[in-house]
Amino acid sequence: MSQFLDFWSSYLPVYKQSSITESSNQAVPYLLLTIVFSLVVYIVESYLDRRQLNRFSGPKCRLPKELESFVTSETFVKSVAYGKDKFTFKIFEGCYSIIEG
Known about the structure:
Blueprint: H1 2-9, H2 30-57, H3 73-100
């Protein structure tokens, strides 16, 4: 693990405490850890968003019988279309955010 950190510490800014001698100073690549964590969160959220988007398009996406007396078919179709648009926008917004950040 220390070889991995030594390799990346030469390319990325790392925090080194000045009061510790060089031999005992272990550089921690906070920037690399932050980038990796952000990418992992983005990948997990994108996966979940795509699964939800597929649920809007699948054959199981129909008005439940229990709600037929409360919601019209037209309202349900509009809400499904809104949900698709919302998740599509969220996926593109997340991609732009991860590239920009």
